Amino acid sequence: DRALALTDAAAAGELLVGASVKALLVEAGGVRFGPARELPGGTAWRVEVGPPPVRVESLVGRDEALAEARAVVDSARKGEGGARLFVGPTGVGRSRFLEAVEDLAANATPLRVVHAWGGDPRSAGALGLVRTVFVALSRAAMGTDVSGPPLSGLGLSEAEAQALWRRLARGAPMGGHLPAGDGAVVEALRRVAQPSGLLLLVDDVHRVDGASLELLAGVLATKDTRVALVGTGDVDAVPTALASLPVTVLEGLSSSELNALLTASLGTSLSPSLERAVGDRVRGNPAHALALVRLLVAVGVLQRTEEGFQANGPLSAASLPQDLGQVLGARLELLPSASLRFLQRAAVEGSLFSAELVRASLPSAEGAEVLDDAEWVVPVPRQPGSFRFTREEARQVLRERLSPMQLRNAHEELAETLEREAFASEPAREVRVADHLLGADAPGAQAACERAGDGFAARGEWRAAVEFYRWALGRAPGATAAVVRWQLGVLASAARCLTQVDPASVDGLVTPWLDRVSVMQTPGTWAEAARRLAIAELKLGRIADAEVRLSMAQGPASADPEVEALVLGELARVREAKGETTAAVELLARAFQRMGNRTARAPDFYWEHYLLLGRLQQRLGQLDRARVAFTRAAEQARSVASAVGQARALSQLAGLRVLAGEPAQALSELERALVLADQGGDAQEVARIHFNAGRLLVAGGRVPEARERLEQARERARVAGWREGEALAAQVLGTMEGRTPRR
């Protein structure tokens, strides 16, 4: 009868409830009511708003910080750049703050905005963040069309986009030759920021790769780039590269602000006594406050009433869990066991994870419904099927609840799942497999680390490669000659990569291993590791040390023809550095003789050594022999599909054409070399070719064409970071300007 009376009294589209139902809805939360109405049989209330979409938390008490962020957004919209970091301790709401800044920027049209996260696996590796930014801009420009080549829609020519993608995707062209310099990346950023401006919103800047941070710092310090940054990060881990930027510290909230946050997020306020108790315990940390109140409601200590949350008994700060980790641990205990297992497996996978990967790694598909609970995980925008832990603290608590055996098993099962064909397209797959196998202490961990190191080395990410090679090596030589031979091969690879970025540290890496391994056990690989150390010493200008090292390696190297040939080649470089050109040529002849007709394991062996031989013979005035050597270098480079090798050989042949008085043929050779150098991504060779072509055109009186080529040489040298080439091109251009008749 009561229900019929309420139905009859309600207008169309109106829902009326009595006191009992109202009490239940109040306790559930998320419902507002209209004024009380007296009806036959009792009082009724109109339900005005149903449960709103759940949001993890509202933003409260950040007015001043938002004003500072708004100033950066306004500056970016005007094309004036700008930057500010907002840092704070764990749980203070940095990510939520950045979401609010994104909402502000959404109204700042036509400003381009990219929101990125430092922990995103897609941003792994050198220049990972910058790569993510360009991909996001490209996708925004192309809309739903993802069929085009990488970096389409950015206003770059096809060649420029391809060169930029090579730099961002691989870090360096295959073979380890000089990559396109970061100047090209900076220039591309400047261009995509024109004319409307570009605002980068970067969460967790302390987790961004160093190369991206250094490049970004340079961009922000340059006038007229129209690039701006709002970043958030850990108060105790501000990256050195961004240390000069203005910083705002996001402090904890006051008790009243915490109450306002809880009211906005949970739909009910705290009573004054509860506000004091919670405020004293959480010390202004909003994440701690939200998690604590949710816990107290879940265990029945707090109850929703019309007046707000009320405790069922006396409650003091001392009786509450001490820190956020304890609160989250208690909350996790209330989850169904299947949901807890799912979250624990996801926590082992990473801060960001594929739901399908986690599901496939578990024996049962149960528990995935926890993905709908925004208290623990949230979907990653524009990455269907990917989720991110709402709080990193929750992920740490989940991992800590696993026993060592459970943790190892989780790592191993995730590694096995990742290696399935269905997950072949997962980002950074080889690296993640290696990480999981290391975590599992599995037998295949060392081989997986070597594969990950090889992947990083191929992309020119030298430091990351060295790190994985170190893990592959282990701490001591293996028990058998086969294992030691493999370890010394990994050591040589690590030394090669470390020489690229820190040659002074190669000695500390290689020498302890050479001292602990018997040279007679694996003479060839021992000599190769020693040769790699000698190359680093040569790079440091320690010519005498390198010569002694190589002379010691000659005997063991004789066990492997190719290693001995390589040692002889390095000795030739030592003699070249000492000015002993004839002796260097003789050593190279011995190196070729030692190789005989063998196919080299190192694909660049022949063309690199023929190039060196040709340069030495040219220095001795043996031009015909030099031409033969350069021609063979070009043929060998073509046989191993090395565009870089072909370009360098053709450039040398063009030089001989000039000496022979054949400038037209020389220009033709240079044009062919230019195409190949561009194809191989050898930016310094591209600049050198433009410079040499410009000088030839000057000599031929073709001044306008010469000026254009020299300007290209100067710009390409700047992009490649080749300061000497940039200065030479500028010098010739300055001389040309001085000769130009004034009108």
Question: Poorly predicted ranges (pLDDT <50, ≥5 residues)?
Answer: 50-56, 171-181
Percentage beta strand = 5-15%
Do you know the CATH architecture of the largest domain? Answer: 3-Layer(aba) Sandwich
Q: What is the number of domains?
A: 5
Q: First CA to last CA: what distance?
A: 105 Å
> What is the CATH topology assignment of the largest domain?
Rossmann fold
Largest sheet: 5 strands, parallel
Q: What's the CATH class of the largest domain, please?
A: Alpha Beta
Supply the helix-strand structural class: alpha/beta
By CATH, the superfamily of the largest domain comes out as P-loop containing nucleotide triphosphate hydrolases
- Estimate the mean pLDDT confidence: 85
Number of helices: 32
What value does the Rg take, in angstroms?
Answer: 33 Å
In total, how many beta strands? 13
Amount of helix: 55-70%
Shape: elongated
Largest beta sheet: strand ordering: 5-6-7-4-8
Pick out its properties.
743 residues, alpha/beta, Rossmann fold, 5 domains, five-stranded parallel beta sheet, three-stranded antiparallel beta sheet, 13 strands, 9% strand, elongated
Can you put this structure into words, describing what you see?
The protein is of the alpha/beta class and 743 residues long. The protein folds into five domains: 2-49, no CATH class; 63-249, P-loop containing nucleotide triphosphate hydrolases (Rossmann fold, 3-Layer(aba) Sandwich), CATH 3.40.50.300; 255-323; 333-424, no CATH class; 475-602, Tetratricopeptide repeat domain (Serine Threonine Protein Phosphatase 5, Tetratricopeptide repeat), CATH 1.25.40.10. 59% of the residues lie in helices and 9% in strands. It contains 32 helices and 13 strands. The strands form four sheets. It has a five-stranded parallel β-sheet, sandwiched between helices. The chain has a three-stranded antiparallel β-sheet with strand order 1-3-2. A three-stranded antiparallel β-sheet has the order 11-13-12. Strand 12 and strand 13 form a beta hairpin. Helix 13 (337-349) crosses helix 15 and helix 18 (445-458) runs parallel beside helix 20. The longest helix has 21 residues, at 481-501. The protein is elongated. Keywords: ATP-binding, Kinase, Nucleotide-binding, Serine/threonine-protein kinase, Transferase. It comes from Corallococcus terminator. This is Serine/threonine protein kinase.
